[in-house]
Each structure stands twice: as structure tokens, then as C-alpha cells.
Design brief:
By secondary structure, the chain is an all-beta fold. Helices cover about 0% and strands about 50% of the residues. It starts with 5 loop residues before the first strand and ends with a strand.
């Protein structure tokens, strides 16, 4: 029997300056009965470029974001990314076993800011 899907909005029209970043609030994964499946839906405007990462913690103090770009949820996301070329897409991602999760969005282009809405689904 499959478990239900839990979803939450992490950012709603969040402005991030060029080379800036924003971290979501803490998600306590123990509150959910999970099979370990995660999805991240992104909507972005602005002329910058976004990178989205999952950070995990066992101690609820230190959040570890991988330095390997292949571990990112998405890199080089722009206002024309996605199947409709409209800055909207959804991604599946994995995390290592941990109790606490944060999502971080970073503007990586360096010249322009971005505005993002990010939702996460967990099963």
C-alpha cells in the first residue's frame, strides 16, 4: 500500500538578489511517514540563473549541502527553463538519510536577481 503524498510551499515569490541565496525553513522529516521520494516544483521569473539544493542535518544545527553539482536538485535554471520554456518545472531528487531538511535557492548568474516560488512533495 502506498503512502500519501505530503506537500508544502517553501518560497512564495521570494526575491533573491544576484549572487544571493535563501534557505527554506526546517522540514522535520520525522513528522511524515516517508518512502524516500521527493519532488521539487519551481516557478521562476527574473533575468538571473538559479541553483537549487537540498541540505540535510542529523543535529538540526549543521545543514550539509553537497559541493558536487550532480547532487543539486537543478542547476542553471532560468526563466525559460521547463517544457513550456516558461520558467516552470518539477524535479525528483534524493537525499541521504537524515531527520532534518532545508532547500536552498542560489542565484548563480551574478548580474541579475530572480523571483522564485518553490514547493516540495514527499512520499
Amino acid at each position: 500500500m502506498s503512502k500519501s503524498v505530503n506537500d508544502m510551499r517553501l518560497f512564495l515569490a521570494k526575491s533573491i538578489a544576484a549572487l544571493g541565496s535563501a534557505e527554506s525553513s526546517i522540514i522535520d522529516l520525522q513528522e511524515f511517514s516517508l518512502d524516500g521520494f521527493f519532488g521539487c516544483q519551481v516557478s521562476m521569473t527574473g533575468n538571473g540563473t538559479a541553483k537549487i539544493q537540498a541540505g540535510v542535518s542529523v543535529d538540526k544545527v549543521n545543514y550539509i549541502y553537497s559541493s558536487d553539482p550532480s547532487d543539486d536538485i537543478v542547476t542553471a535554471f532560468t526563466k525559460t527553463t521547463g517544457p513550456g520554456s516558461d520558467g516552470k518545472n518539477i524535479y525528483q531528487f534524493e537525499i541521504v538519510t537524515a531527520r532534518w531538511l532545508k532547500i536552498k535557492v542560489t542565484e548563480t548568474g551574478g548580474a541579475n536577481g530572480i523571483v522564485v516560488t518553490v514547493d516540495v512533495a514527499m512520499q
